[in-house]
């Protein structure tokens, strides 16, 4: 057991899919994994391990925001020997060419969080995805015919931002999606020697005021989950 996870040693697979929402973790375990068993429930942050195409895979919620996600990612890596963490999240978008339901893969993650500067003596650490995981996810998305966008994303500390003018800059600099965990996850992976990737479904378009219904959200998240699972155990 670790401080925030009450699974036993060996309960987690080497690869963990990590949505923000613990109930999305449950949905993935029930709908996509075979023989899934719940392995942790501290604070309701549910985690499960099962198989996909006969290969062991785990899924666990991260909670919202870099501080929460960093705790779980760090403990999974250092206490449970997890090697690959793939965030399967939702994000907002600002770009004209991005549509609801597009699947955005975060090759890099900008942030207003200070966590990676804390790790890097105040300098700018480039928070990037593991190239091998990225390559496999792109290949799996292409094979499935999913509308993929690959590039920079932005991990915000504040969902309700006091700086909406940042959205203009993000559009200008071609930031594809706004979410709240990827830059922290990439920093944790670098610090503790694991591999990480963030994949997000566009759930709302900030400029156009569009948002997926809960039903749409469910269906389009399926595509992203399939991309993630096929890329690690296809
Ligand atoms: O849908 P998830 O994975 O939680 O991701 C996004 O949704 C939450 C905000 O509503 C934040 O965690 C953000 O990153
Ligand atoms: O963090 C998030 C998630 C979805 N949409 C946003 O605008 N931000």
From TrEMBL:
Phosphate binds at residues 20, 24, 43, 87-90. PROSITE patterns: PNP_UDP_1. The record marks 217 as: Important for catalytic activity. Pfam families: PNP_UDP_1 (PF01048). It catalyses: uridine + phosphate = alpha-D-ribose 1-phosphate + uracil; a purine D-ribonucleoside + phosphate = a purine nucleobase + alpha-D-ribose 1-phosphate; a purine 2'-deoxy-D-ribonucleoside + phosphate = a purine nucleobase + 2-deoxy-alpha-D-ribose 1-phosphate. InterPro entries: DeoD-type, Nucleoside_phosphorylase_CS, Nucleoside_phosphorylase_d, Nucleoside_phosphorylase_sf. Keywords: Glycosyltransferase, Transferase. Residues 15-222 form the Nucleoside phosphorylase domain. Its EC number is 2.4.2.1. The active site is at 204 (proton donor). It comes from the Bacteria. A purine D-ribonucleoside binds at residues 4, 179-181, 203-204. Belongs to the PNP/UDP phosphorylase family. Homohexamer; trimer of homodimers. Catalyzes the reversible phosphorolytic breakdown of the N-glycosidic bond in the beta-(deoxy)ribonucleoside molecules, with the formation of the corresponding free purine bases and pentose-1-phosphate. NCBIfam families: deoD (TIGR00107), PRK05819.1 (NF004489), PRK13374.1 (NF009914). This is Purine nucleoside phosphorylase DeoD-type.
């Amino acid at each position: 057991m670790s401080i925030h996870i009450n699974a036993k040693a060996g309960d987690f697979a080497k690869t963990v899919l990590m949505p923000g929402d613990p109930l999305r973790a449950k949905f993935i375990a029930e709908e996509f994994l075979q023989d899934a068993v719940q392995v942790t429930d501290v604070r309701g942050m549910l985690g499960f391990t099962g198989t996909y195409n006969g290969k062991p895979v785990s899924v666990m919620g991260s909670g919202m925001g870099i501080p929460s996600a960093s705790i779980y990612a760090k403990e999974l890596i250092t206490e449970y020997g997890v090697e690959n963490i793939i965030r399967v999240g939702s994000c907002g978008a600002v770009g004209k060419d991005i549509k609801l339901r597009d699947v955005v893969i975060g090759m890099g993650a900008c942030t207003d969080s200070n966590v990676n500067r804390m790790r890097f003596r105040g300098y700018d650490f480039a928070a990037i995805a593991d190239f091998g995981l990225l390559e496999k996810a792109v290949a799996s998305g292409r094979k499935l015919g999913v509308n993929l966008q690959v590039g920079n994303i932005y991990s915000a500390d504040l969902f309700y931002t006091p700086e909406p003018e940042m959205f203009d800059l993000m559009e200008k600099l071609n930031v594809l999606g706004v979410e709240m965990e990827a830059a922290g996850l990439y920093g944790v992976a670098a610090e503790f020697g694991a591999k990480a990737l963030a994949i997000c479904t566009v759930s709302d378009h900030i400029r156009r005021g569009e948002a997926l219904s809960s039903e749409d959200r469910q269906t389009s998240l399926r595509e992203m989950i399939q991309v993630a699972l096929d890329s690690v155990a296809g």
